[in-house]
Each structure stands twice: as C-alpha cells, then as structure tokens.
Design brief:
Chain lengths: ~600, ~600
C-alpha cells in the first residue's frame, strides 16, 4: 500500500465515521436542548474546578499573609460555595448526559428490534439468532459511552485544560512555562503506553477466551477425557493454556507498573520545577506564596484530563465499529414487499389456488417445490402427506408469504396473494405449528397474543367448548398462570390445545395446521381431536397430517414426494392403488393408529 | 469471610515475595510522603530567608545562582526528585511483586480446580448444570483472585500510607490534623455504600439485560408465528416494555454513579478548605506556617484514594468470599469412582467377556429405575446389539461398562472377574467407546484420533482413519491430519464426526468396542464398509452396538430389545424376525422406508 492509498483509506474512514455520527445524531436530536444544557453546565463545572486553587491563592496572599481573619472567613465561605455548586452541577450534568444517552439507546434498541422483526423470514434462516440478539443488545450497549457521557466529557476535559492553563498564565506566565515543560514527556509516555497496552489487552482478552473455552470444552467432553484415560495429558495442556493466560496478565501488569510510576514521577517532577523556579521567584519578589500553593495544585489537576482524553478516544473508536454493524442491519432490504396498491378491505372466502409454483430456499440449492398446482375450494379440508423433506412445510411458508415464490402464482379467492396487504393476507390465516408455539407469559396472553379485539369472555367460552378448561382450571392461577420457558411445564397435548384455542378465538377464514408427530397421552388426545373437529367445521383448512383420523375425514389428500404432488384423492381412492406412494406411507406411518 | 482464611495457605506459599512486596509498598509510601515534607521545608526556608531580609530586588536568575538561596533550592529540588524517583521505582517493584503474585496464585487455583473437575464423577456432571460448573472454574476464580490482588494490595496501601501520613500530620499539629481528617471517615463510608449499591444494582441490571435479550430471542425464534398472526406490534410493545424497565433500572444506577465522583471531590474539597481555614487562622496566630498548609493540602490529596478504596475493598472481599464458598463446595465433592482395597493390581490385560447379573440402575436424584434386573453374557469376541425406543435405557446400559456410573444393584463381571476388582485404568484402557453425542475437541484431526493412546505415530493414525472410513475425507483437506476442528477451524459433517470418533476408539485396539448409535449420520454404503472391517477383526474383540438401524445390527451374534429398562426380546436376527414382535415390526418399517426413498 502506498502512502497516498493509505491517506485515501483514512479519508474514507473519516467519511464513514462522520456519516455514522450524523446517523447516530438522529437519535440524540430529540434531546438537543438538554444536550445544550448539559454542555452549559459542563462549562461552569470546568471553570469551577480550576477556580478553587485560585481562591486559595487569594486567601493566602490577601488575607492570611495580611493577618486578616475576617477576610479569610469570607473567602472560605466563597470557596465552600463554589465547592458545593461544582459538586451539584457535576452531579446534574453527569446524570443528565446519562439520561439523554439512555433515552437515545432506548429508541435505537427498539428501532433495531422492530427492523429485524419486520424482515423477511429468509433473513432469519441466514442469520443465526445469536447474532441478531447481539445486534439488539451488545452492540447497542457498546454505544452507551458515546451517546451518553462520551462527547460531553471530552468537551469538558478540553475546557478544563483550557481553564487551568488560563488561570496559570494569568497568575504567572513564566512559572506556567516552567511547570508545563514536562507536558510533552507526559504526552509521549501516554502515547507509547496506550499503543502497547492496547496490544497487551488484546492478548489478555484472547488468552482469557482460550482458558475459558478450554474449560468449557473439557466440562462438556469430560466423559471422553475420563473414558480415554487422558487426565494427565489434559492437565498438562491446561497448565500450558493457564500459563499463557497468567503470563499475558503479567505482561500487562509490567506495562502498568512502568506507566503509573512514570506518571507519578512526571507529576512530581513538575511540582519540583514549580518549587525550584517558583521558590526563587518568591525570593526575588516576583511571586507570592499563594501562587506557589496554587501552582502545586494546578500541576496535579492538569494531569487528570490529559490521561482521561486518551482513554475516551479508544472507547469512541470501538463504539463506531458497533454502530456500523447496527446500521447495516437497519439498512437491510425487506425481500417480501408490501403491495403498492393492495386490495381494500377484502372479504376472504378461502379458496386457495397454487398454479405451477416453483420454489427453492436458496439460489444455489435444488428446487423444493417443482411445478406444484392444486386448489383447495373454500370450506373444504385438504390434507398433505409425505415423507420428511417432501416439501409439505414449504406449502405453508409460501401461502402466508413467509417467502415469495420464484415462478408461478398463488391465489386467494382468485386474487394473487401479492396483491393483498401483508396484514390482510395473514389475518385470513390461523396457524397451528408443531413447535415454538408458546411464549413465556400467561396462558391468556398466549391465546390472545395481546389482541385487544379478543376479550376474555370469548377465550373462556372457547376454552369451555374444547374442554381445555379442564386442565387450565387445575393450574394455580388458571388462565393467568404464567408459563415458564415456553410452556415446558405443560404436556405436549396441553400445549397443542392452547394453540388450538388461539386459532379458535382468532376465528380465521383459513386454518393451517401442522399436526404434532409425537405421541399425546390418550386423555388429551381425545380433547385434541374434538377441538380439531370443531376448528375444521365449515372452514378452509390445509393440514400436514400425521393422524389417520385427520386424513380419513379430509375432502382431498395431496401426496407430496420429493417436491412434487404425486397423488391426490380421498383416502379410500388412494389406498386402492396397490403400488402407490400413499399406500406405503399409510403402512409406515398410520397403520398402527387406532381410529377413534 | 472465614472461607477466605482457608485460602491463606496460598499467601504462605509465596510468603517471601509477598513480604518483599509489602516492604516495597511501605517504603514507597515513605518516599511519597517525603515530597510534601520537603515542600514544606522549602517554603518555610524561603519564608525565613525573606523575613531575614534577603535582597528582594534581585532577578529570579540571581536568586537561583545566589550561594545561600540557590544551593538551598537546588538541594531541596534534588531531594524532591530523589523522593519521586525512589517512590516510582518502589511502586514499580510493589506492582511487580504483589500483583504478579496474585496472578501466580490465580494460576495455582485454576490448576487445582481444573484438576478437580477431571476427578469428579460423571454423576456430578449429570446432577449439576454445566453452566454453573463453568462459572465455578472461571468467573468465581476471577473473583477470588481479587482477594489476593487488589483487595490485599489496597488494604496494605491504605494502612501503610494513612499510618505514615497521619503520624506526620499529628507531629506537625494535632488540632489541624483533626480538622483535615474530619471528612475522611465519611468518604470511606460513602465509598462502601456506593460500591455495594453499585454491585446490587449491576446484578439487577444484568438480569434485566438478560430479559431484554430473552425477549428478542423469543420473538426472533418464533418469527413465523408472529408474522402469521400479524402480531408484530404487540411484540414490539413487549420488547419496548422490557427495554423501558432496563432503561429505568440503568438510570437508577446512574443516579448513584453520578453521585460518586462529585461527592468524592466534595469531601476532599471540604478537607482542603478546612485546612485552609483553620490553618490560615493558625498561621495568623503564628502556630503553623504557610508551608504547613501546602503540606497538608498535598497530604489530604494523597489520602483520597486509599481512604475511598477502603470501602471498595471491603465490598470486594465480601464478593470474593461468596465465590470462595461456592468453589469450596465443589472442591468438597467426592472424587470419581476409583480403585479400592479389593482392586487386584495384577490384572493388566482383558479378553473382553462381559456379564451382567441382575443389574439395576437409578440415576442420582431420580426415583425411577432406568434399568431393571438386566442379565446377559457376551463371550469374548462375540458381537451384541441393543435396540429399542429412545429413552428405553440402551445408552445407560452401555455406560455402565466403562464405569461412568456404577450399578445401583447387581454386579457386572468382565472376564469372569467382578469388574470393581479390575483397576479402573486397565478397564478403560481395554474399552474403545464411541458415544452417541460425538464430541471432538477443537484441536487437529490427528490429535483427536490419537487422543487415547500414549505414543501416536502417523502410521497408527492413518490406519485407524482408514478403518473408520474417514481417511479419504481427511486427505481431501489441505492440511490433512493437521486440520484444526471447532470454532477456530473447520466444521465436519455429522457423518465425518462420527467416523473420526470411531477412529479414535479403534486406534486403541480395544478388547471391547462400544458403539452407541455411532453410525446414524453415516450413509448405508459407508456403514457397510465399516461393519465389514469390524467383522474381520472381531475374533479378538467384543463388540457392543446400540442402534436404531436394522442394517447395523443384522449380523450381530446376539440382539437385545430393550424397553422401559428391561430386556424384552433377545436372540439373533432370524429368531427375532420369527418372533414377530417389536424387532420384526421395526424391520418391516425400515424396509418400507427404503422402498419409499428409492421411488
């Protein structure tokens, strides 16, 4: 890389940084005037701190040296006043900036969540959930310093340095120059140290991760270690990883052991210079004791903001990296687009038509659906059967527009589903899926999903109708029983009943059901099948069937095999074909089931 | 707190270094305190010179070069620099001894705990949440280190520094000292209160943070359901609520944190102003000098951090103690089943005959028996297969053979000897175990295969990989056997993992080979090849297989059908087919499946 390239790159980075900062500012915009207020208070605080040594100078020179006890008292009152004001304002500005920061983080966090939630389902297939959670939590937290105290503190530190220098030069420019002559050394030491410590910290972080992942891995694989009699060897390996970890820390300790004493020595050196030159000046009558005293304090005060500033720039750098990741999510384009002219207030009857539908999840993969065509007339039940991976679930994903198809058309009541608004389209369907169907929260919330249009009475009636209240009423708070961990305290069948109830109270035009494969205890089984019969009545339904009873009552059965519809017809028709797929599936999956 | 005393033997181990470090720290503080004393002396000397009528009309330069004043200033400045340098060097030495030692101690504790982990029985891992065990071996150690490191150093620092400073201050003027120190106890109390409060609040915030993440997790993983019922707005609100609670809690902590620095500087400021006021009055009365005021102001600033850290340190020690209690509890657990008085150490080779006599087993903390009254005998060189539903007890049964667990009732014999009499290392050395959940370490493929043997050679690894039918896959990788697996390396497919795990067992040339559903992710053709190889070597090897696939068990000498912890059918393939029971039904279904797949 040539120098000009490097330049260009860093210019580009700066351009990116300023663009990021401008976008972040959008979230601070509502607090604009509070920010101005915080800055104003910071200005006062930055002045009040350096003012205090000045007051000491006045006290010493004008009152103590002149034996004026009453005057001393006045200046003491003033000093205490300044001290309290400074503390109060400092509290105020610290809290205010954090309050602003939390507000901005709050809206940013919600914005990221809403954006992710609104994205097409494919996005969730491609990005691991863990990563998405990191975007909504960790990455936002990393901005905390930048959006709250960050900028205001930097300005505060700069102002403080400015005021301290102002007071110093006002009192004695000569002594100021002498005192500040150590400053370049401090800057240099800080600069060298920060560069080294950054590397050392990275290595510490790395080694901590190594020790932790070694421990984690060996806890998980302890049975292997013990079975294969590898305790001694693994202990040796751990010792090595542990040694690396310790030595990385010890290296960092060394850096700090050099840095902190260096800072102390430099600040004492500055103080010594003040005493040496200042002492001589006092003797020659050009300086007072008060100024000498004030300078001793200024020298110490001065070192703090300088050190602080070098820390702050680091945090800002990492905050910008996080914000870049956040904005890349916020900029993701939604693949499933809303229609520009959706059908207004559609009255859905429920006829579903697939016409030559082709679909694959990924452009590089094989087609999951190949030229699929069928129709489910309004009010009828259509069962879909087939082996795992035949493409049954894909049908559900397409009709609800979780994914958009590649070729062909899907129609609802003869209108392309892309012409409905997503809300209207999805409101026409009621989905009962196999898993992930419950949230943590009360049973009531799980049924209504917080829809205010569904009142409690309706839920209670439905619950009574399908006799789900039989088990719900046995729970501690009945319908207000709070489910933990997605309802793991309930049986499979009970969870399923709650999902049925949900579909029932939503009363959709079309029911889509992915029956559970696992065995449900016989008592609940009966409730479940009764509930299902009620749900199916006079309703268009597509069911991925695992129960013999379901298939037998279906108006039409689609047999899917390797992405195609290979057979269709009623149970008896299909069973009649001796070499048919359905017949084999029937023997494999349904034959053992007893039909109630 | 008493728990931490148990850790003091670590201090004892490093007593030399620690003693040295403490001495360094005390001397460092001595030199530090010399600085304000020198400043006072210089100011006082200047005052005396001025009062003695030193020519005040001279320029600064003349004052610096004049014999009486110049040499005095030069001398005192030299001492100041000396004091500062000595302080710096000793501070460096303190950090290099005390803090480094705390890391050495941490190193020791980590080794000790990891060693314990290796000696804990599998029942401990079954009973406890892995996450908790992990925290013991990581975060809790970090907490305990803080007792040896910062807590110990700050404590010593506080005692040494305030001892020296307060003594000197008292020597100068007890009354002024009282005034100067007046705000400091409050500072300490305040720091104690704040750091405790911050700790509690931070934990609360951590929990709420987890709730926020949990909300996102639940929503993102149920995204289909949310979209299907068009409930995005509702979920948004729920997330917003958690987010709001988080914000509120965070702001509550922010209040305390906003108070901390301002109030710290307020109290120090009060100390300074008290010195100035009372000291000023004393100067006027002629009791103390302006030099004393300068000295006291510096003393007070030097005391700030040690006094504030006292409160912080006490909190730190409390937290360390809590972690130490948790660690101590784990260290007190009994070790893994190991050899006892009845162990016959003469046994060093096994032929591989296995017999179960009325074996029943119950997992710790469980009331139900996982195995009930199991009896069978497999001769050396025979092959046996176990089939049955998930959860029927097959895996539990075979885990008893390498003594991952001991039977609750009944006895197990290997080569006709009660297996508790066989040294554990000998027993396990003779077993090649391929577990159901393939676990490979994130090191190289070669290291993983040679995991269980002492002197691995390339030939041995190569041969085992070949036998497990994974050689071709490995050779396709750029780095072959040196390919790193896991997070930092590549991910193997399920079938490749299983075959690597088989190679790891085969390389030991064990008398007993146990395959726990280890071919489920391997295609049938490869499966055949592996089974064929195993058959050729079977004469001197007892093989036990758990499987869901008929093709894996069809050639076994003995097949056992396990249901609900009991053996319900047994025999060879033909005889079981004729019985027309569970096994026959399973066979029929698998044939149908195959037909369907071929359509």
């Amino acid at each position: 890389m040539t120098a000009s390239d490097k330049n260009k790159k860093s210019n580009n980075n700066k351009a990116v940084d300023s663009r990021l900062i401008r976008r972040l500012y959008v979230y601070l915009e509502p607090y604009k005037w509070y920010l101005v207020g915080a800055l104003f208070i910071t200005l006062i605080v930055s002045f009040a701190g350096p003012l205090r040594p000045y007051l000491i100078q006045v006290a010493v020179d004008d009152y103590i040296a002149k034996d004026d006890g009453a005057g001393l008292r006045l200046i003491i009152y003033l000093y205490v006043g300044v001290l309290f004001l400074e503390s109060l304002l400092m509290i105020a500005t610290t809290y205010l900036t954090r309050w602003i920061g939390q507000g901005a983080l709050f809206s940013l966090r919600n914005a990221v969540f809403n954006k992710i939630q609104s994205l097409h389902v494919q996005f969730f297939d491609r990005n691991p959930i863990g990563k998405l959670i990191t975007r909504t939590t960790n990455d936002i937290e990393a901005l905390s310093d930048l959006l709250s105290s960050g900028v205001v503190n930097i300005i505060g530190d700069i102002l403080r340095i400015f005021f301290i220098m102002g007071f110093m030069f006002y009192m004695s420019w000569e002594l100021s120059l002498v005192a500040l002559s150590t400053l370049p050394l401090l800057f240099y030491a800080t600069f060298v140290f920060k560069a080294k410590v950054r590397v050392a910290f990275l290595s510490v972080r790395d080694r901590i991760a190594q020790v932790n992942s070694f421990v984690q891995e060996h806890i998980n694989g302890m049975s292997i270690v013990q079975l294969f009699g590898r305790e001694k060897e693994e202990m040796e390996r751990f010792r090595e990883v542990n040694e690396n970890h310790a030595s990385a820390h010890i290296k960092t300790i060394f850096l700090f052991a050099i840095f902190w004493p260096t800072v102390e020595v430099l600040s004492s050196l500055a103080m010594t210079l003040v005493i040496w030159y200042g002492g001589a000046s006092t003797l020659s009558g050009t300086l007072t004791f008060g100024i000498l005293l004030a300078f001793i304090q200024y020298v110490r005060l001065f070192f703090l903001p300088v050190r602080d500033l070098s820390d702050k720039f680091n945090t800002l750098q990492s905050a910008l990296a996080s914000s870049e990741r956040i904005f890349s999510v916020l900029d993701t384009e939604n693949r499933v687009k809303e229609s520009e002219n959706p059908v207004q207030n559609p009255l859905v009857k429920g006829t579903i038509t697939f016409e030559n539908v082709w679909f694959r999840y990924n452009e590089t993969e094989d087609y999951v659906l190949k030229d699929v065509s069928f129709e489910v007339p309004a009010g009828t039940t259509c069962a879909v059967v087939g082996a795992t991976g035949a493409g049954k679930t894909t049908l559900i994903n397409l009709v609800t527009r979780f994914y958009d198809i590649e070729r062909g058309t899907i129609r609802l009541d003869g209108i392309d589903i892309k012409d409905y608004s997503l809300f209207d389209l999805r409101s026409a369907f009621g989905l009962v899926l196999q898993d992930n169907a419950l949230f943590s929260g009360t049973i009531m919330d799980n049924i209504t999903l917080g829809n205010p249009k569904i009142d409690r009475q309706k839920v209670l009636e439905a619950g009574h109708l399908v006799e789900a209240d039989r088990f719900i009423n046995k729970l501690p708070a009945k319908y207000d029983y709070v489910l933990q961990e997605r309802g793991s305290s309930l049986s499979m069948g009970q969870r399923q009943l709650i999902c049925f109830l949900r579909a029932m109270v939503y009363d959709p035009e079309i029911l889509i059901l992915d029956e559970a494969t696992s065995n449900v205890d016989s008592e609940t089984e009966e409730l479940v099948s009764n509930a299902m019969n009620m749900l199916l009545k006079d309703r268009t339904s597509i069911i991925i069937a695992h129960r013999l009873a379901t298939i037998q009552h279906a108006d039409n059965i689609l047999v899917m095999h390797k992405g195609e519809i290979r057979e269709s017809g009623s149970h008896n028709e299909l069973l009649g074909r001796s070499e048919g797929i359905y017949r084999k599936l029937y023997e494999l999956q349904y034959k053992d089931q007893i039909v109630a | 707190m008493r728990e931490l005393l148990k850790l003091n033997h670590y201090f004892y181990k490093y007593k030399g270094t620690i003693l040295l470090g403490v001495l360094f720290l005390i001397f460092a503080n001595g030199f530090l305190v010399w600085i304000p004393v020198l400043i006072r002396q210089t100011i006082d000397a200047i005052e005396e010179l001025t009062e003695a009528g030193f020519a005040t009309t001279d320029s600064v330069w003349q004052a610096l070069t004049s014999p009486e004043a110049g040499s005095l200033l030069a001398m005192n400045s030299f001492y100041l620099i000396l004091a500062a340098l000595m302080y710096g060097v000793l501070l460096f030495a303190t950090r290099q001894t005390l803090i480094v030692t705390s890391r050495r101690i941490e190193f020791d504790i980590r080794n000790e705990i990891y060693d314990k982990l290796q000696r804990l029985p599998q029942s401990y891992f079954a009973r406890n949440n892995t996450g908790d065990i992990y925290v013991r071996a990581t975060e809790d150690i970090v907490r305990v280190r803080e007792y040896f490191g910062p807590a110990f150093m700050y404590m010593t620092q506080t005692i040494a520094r305030s001892g020296i400073i307060i003594t000197i201050m008292l020597l100068v003027n007890p009354k002024l000292t009282m005034w100067a120190l007046l705000p400091l106890p409050f500072l300490s109390l305040f720091a104690y209160w704040v750091s405790g409060f911050i700790h509690v609040r931070s934990n609360e915030i951590q929990e709420q943070y987890a709730n926020v993440a949990g909300r996102a997790q639940e929503a993102f993983s149920s995204i289909r359901l949310i979209k299907a019922y068009a409930r995005e707005d509702y979920e948004s609100d729920r997330f917003k609520n958690e987010s709001q609670v988080y914000k509120t809690k965070k702001l509550r902590l922010d209040i305390v944190e906003s108070l901390f620095h301002p109030l710290l500087s307020l109290m120090i400021g009060l100390s300074v102003v008290l010195v100035l006021w009372q000291g000023g009055l004393m100067v006027i009365e002629g009791i103390v000098t302006i030099g004393n005021i300068a000295e006291f102001i510096i003393h007070v600033t030097y005391l700030t951090w040690p006094v504030a850290s006292l409160g912080y340190t006490i909190n730190l020690i409390q937290r360390s103690a809590a972690s130490q209690i948790r660690i101590a509890k784990m260290m007190a657990e009994a070790d893994e089943i190991s050899d006892s008085d009845t162990t016959n150490f003469k046994i060093d080779k096994l032929k591989g005959e296995i017999e179960f006599k009325n074996v029943s087993f119950r997992y710790p903390d469980s009331k139900e028996y996982a195995l009930k009254n199991i009896s069978f005998r497999i001769k050396s060189g025979e092959s046996a297969a176990f089939v049955g539903r998930t959860g029927s007890g097959k895996t539990t049964l075979i885990q008893l053979i390498p003594r991952l667990f001991d039977p609750t009732e009944g006895e197990i014999y290997v080569d006709g000897i009660n297996y508790k009499e066989i040294p554990l290392t000998v027993l396990r050395q003779n077993i090649g175990f391929v577990p159901q959940d393939t676990f490979l370490f994130s090191s190289t493929i070669g290291d993983n295969i040679s995991f269980g043997i002492k002197n691995p050679t390339y030939e041995k690894i190569h041969e085992a990989a070949e036998q497990a039918q994974v050689l071709d896959n490995i050779l396709e990788f750029e780095k072959k056997f040196d390919t790193v697996l896991g997070e930092r390396g590549i991910t193997l497919s399920g079938g490749q993992k299983q075959r690597t795990s088989i190679a790891r067992a085969l390389i030991r040339k064990p008398a007993i080979l146990i395959l726990d559903d280890s071919l489920s992710a391997v295609d049938t053709k490869t499966e055949d090849a592996i089974l064929n190889h195993l058959k050729s070597e079977m004469e001197h090897r007892t093989t036990l297989t758990v499987s869901h696939r008929i093709s894996s068990v069809i050639n076994a000498d003995k097949i056992f059908v396990i249901d609900d912890g009991q053996i319900v059918e047994s025999g060879n393939h033909e005889s079981l087919i004729n019985k027309n029971g569970y096994y026959a039904n399973m066979h029929k279904k698998q044939l149908l499946e195959k037909e369907l797949a071929d359509l």
